[in-house]
Design goal:
The protein is mostly helical. About 70% of the residues lie in helices and about 0% in strands. The protein is globular, with a radius of gyration of 21 Å.
Length: about 250
């Protein structure tokens, strides 16, 4: 993140001082996650054996705080607002709960298709509830969309634990999935600087070109980040680790 913040200033004329680089160099999402880790530490200390209850409280509080952040009849809780810093925490807490439960008991999925249908159903309900965000007097209904969105996360997680998904993960296609998945943070950091409309004349090939460019720059950034990290270690540079893709 620090490496990209510096490079974006040098290569893309983004003006940031050292405080701005440290606090917002990775964009709002990374800053939000950093805050979540601090909050999650105290939640786990206080409620480790009651994470389900903590998740329920988090969702309820998030819905209640809608009225504090609401700004006009067309307020979008998933738009450009600090309110999403509040309600997205429930998903991190859900991930923590899933991780704890998976250590206690293996996730058993009988039918991947059933989990897929459940995820699609939750997604459809999510968009149906989000449709109320522009409705006068019913704008608050969109807060209920948190519930099916948590359902999407839950059922996609279960789908990924199905036998068919595991077989795909360990195939050649799975290697590509792991390679691209491992670049998620880097892709998030670089994408906005690389989006362009200058290649629209070759549509739809411009999508592939920009995608390849983003992945290439993301991979280069990760390599530079590993070099930066290893620079402060006593051991010699591990070049195999620097360029490791998966």
């Amino acid at each position: 993140m620090f490496v990209w913040a510096v490079l974006s200033c040098l290569l893309f004329q983004r003006e940031k001082d050292i405080v701005g680089i440290l606090l917002t160099g990775g964009g709002w999402f990374v800053s939000c996650i950093m805050v979540y880790y601090v909050v999650l530490y105290f939640v786990r200390k206080a409620c480790f054996n009651h994470l389900r209850a903590a998740l329920a409280v988090s969702v309820a509080v998030s819905m209640g705080l809608y009225w504090l952040f609401r700004d006009g009849a067309h307020f979008n809780m998933y738009g450009n607002t600090y309110y999403k810093w509040v309600h997205y925490f429930s998903f991190m807490l859900q991930g923590c709960l899933m991780g704890v439960l998976s250590r206690l008991r293996a996730v058993e999925v009988r039918s991947g298709w059933l989990e897929l249908l459940k995820a699609i159903g939750c997604a459809a309900l999510f968009y149906a509830l989000c449709a109320f965000k522009g409705s006068a007097g019913l704008n608050w209904v969109q807060t209920l969309s948190l519930l099916p969105l948590l359902g999407v996360t839950h059922y996609v997680y279960r789908l990924c634990n199905a036998g068919c998904a595991k077989a795909l993960y360990h195939s050649r296609a799975g290697w590509a999935m792991r390679a691209i998945g491992g670049l998620c943070l880097e892709v998030y950091l670089v994408q906005n600087s690389l989006f362009t409309d200058k290649l629209n004349s070759i549509f739809p090939f411009n999508i592939l070109v920009v995608l390849a460019e983003i992945l290439a720059v993301a991979y280069a950034l990760r390599c530079l980040g590993r070099i930066w990290s290893q620079t402060f270690k006593e051991a010699d540079y591990d070049w195999k680790e620097v360029f490791r893709l998966v």
